[in-house]
Every structure is written in structure tokens, then in C-alpha cells.
Design a protein that fits this description.
The protein is 33% helix and 37% strand. By secondary structure, it is of the alpha+beta class. The protein starts with a helix and ends with a helix.
């Protein structure tokens, strides 16, 4: 009986420690997200340019036969490598993305990348549900794996939501393509 009790207590303590670890990681991601939001507020100001901040804006308007006009506006805030001894010197990498897509309803998404690894660490997405209510979701990532989702799952949206990791890959490819063109 004592062994069973000891095992149960050990398992409980392990679960509590893991939960605290996840919460600590999520809080660090939130701090980075808040800092990114604060920096993004200065876009296109003199302070923005003085501090060497960069961004790309991608805008599209496509008239699909069945879906009608879909407008997408994407702001990509980038960092530029300053490692002189590296092949990546002056190579841009996305660190924060805001995307708004409009058709019958609206989708808004933000992506945050780790400024050291370039990995997606956070996604916020908001869209209208089929019943007309707004649905939000926050996804936290670590090393390419989902760490936490709040809420865990969303259903019945007017949009088929792209996996945030796929959206992040597309953004990285767009930035790399522009870099390849000499921007």
C-alpha cells in the first residue's frame, strides 16, 4: 500500500512540475509577444527607421469564381542578421507577422517567431464562427511542437484555417524569395 501511495504521489508531483514548466514557457512567449506588439506600434515612424527596424507588406486582392473577392493584407516584421562572418549576413528573417484576410467574414492572424532559432513560437487567430460569434485561439509552440492551445480546438468557423506552421513556412519562403531578389 505504501508503494502504491508513494507511486501516486510521485506521479502527481511530476504532473504538477510539468504543468508549471509549460506555464513558465507560455509566460516567456507572452512576454516576447507583448514586446513585439510594442515594437510594431512604431512602424513607419522616424523612431522605427532610426532603430533599424524593417518590414514588408504583402497585399493581394483575388476574385475567385465561387468565393468572390478575397483581400489579404500581411505585414511581416523582420530582423536582419548582423553576423559579419556568416553567410547569412544581412539576411532577413521574419519575427512578427500580422495578417488580415477578408471575404464574407474576416480572418485575423498573428505569428511570432523566435528571434534566435526562427521557429514559430506563437499564433493568435480570430475569425467568425458559423453562428456569427467571434472565435479566438492562441497556440504556443516549442521547437516546432504544440506546447499549449487555448482553447484546445475550434470548430464551425466560416474559414478553413490553415495550420499556423504551414502559414509560418509560407511567410519564411516569401521573405527568402524577396532576399533572393535583392531586397
Amino acid at each position: 500500500m505504501k508503494k502504491l501511495m508513494l507511486f501516486a504521489i510521485t506521479m502527481l508531483m511530476t504532473q504538477v512540475a510539468l504543468a508549471q514548466s509549460v506555464d513558465t514557457k507560455v509566460n516567456k512567449i507572452r512576454e516576447k509577444y507583448n514586446a513585439a506588439q510594442e515594437t510594431a506600434k512604431w512602424k513607419n515612424t522616424e523612431e522605427w527607421m532610426e532603430h533599424g527596424c524593417y518590414s514588408f507588406d504583402f497585399n493581394s486582392r483575388i476574385n475567385y469564381a465561387a468565393a468572390g473577392v478575397i483581400e489579404t493584407n500581411t505585414e511581416v516584421f523582420i530582423t536582419v542578421s548582423d553576423e559579419y562572418d556568416s553567410d547569412d549576413f544581412n539576411k532577413p528573417a521574419p519575427w512578427f507577422v500580422r495578417e488580415k484576410s477578408s471575404r464574407a467574414s474576416e480572418l485575423y492572424r498573428e505569428l511570432l517567431f523566435d528571434d534566435e532559432t526562427g521557429d514559430l513560437i506563437f499564433c493568435y487567430q480570430r475569425c467568425r464562427g458559423e453562428s456569427g460569434n467571434m472565435i479566438e485561439q492562441r497556440l504556443y509552440y516549442e521547437k516546432g511542437k504544440l506546447l499549449k492551445a487555448v482553447p484546445a480546438k475550434i470548430e464551425n468557423t466560416m474559414y478553413e484555417l490553415l495550420d499556423p506552421k504551414d502559414a509560418a513556412t509560407t511567410i519564411k519562403e516569401m521573405v527568402n524569395s524577396l532576399y533572393g531578389l535583392g531586397y
